[in-house]
Amino acid sequence: MNSLSFNIGATIRDDKGKVLVVRSNLAVGYFSAEVGQLIALREGLLLAKFYNFPVSLIEFSSSNVAAALNCHLPLLGDVCCVVNDIKVSFLEVGNCKCQASPKSRNSLAQNLASLAFSSVREYL
């Protein structure tokens, strides 16, 4: 599903699951849900880099996103640019493993994304 804007939520946890830092914002653009998740990941990696947090595991609710990041073949279209940025960030924040997880496991990031949309709406 494509949209003119999308909500981004990123959560960084330590190895015990404790939340270290969170981020949420509303981004404007016309992207698929998968590209939106990739952009959210890129923003989360920039946050990890800013706070100098090592990253070892990245979870998504979409198996397509995890597959794109784990693929060693060249990608095409919008996905290619974002995935290339992410793979460079992987080198800067640690040896990252990507996997698909149930939405319930990523509920904090999804709730933050929804909060970003609500707060922007209230601001307008």
TrEMBL record:
One of its GO terms (molecular function) is nucleic acid binding. InterPro entries: RNaseH_domain. Residues 7-115 form the RNase H type-1 domain. This is RNase H type-1 domain-containing protein. It comes from Dipteronia sinensis.
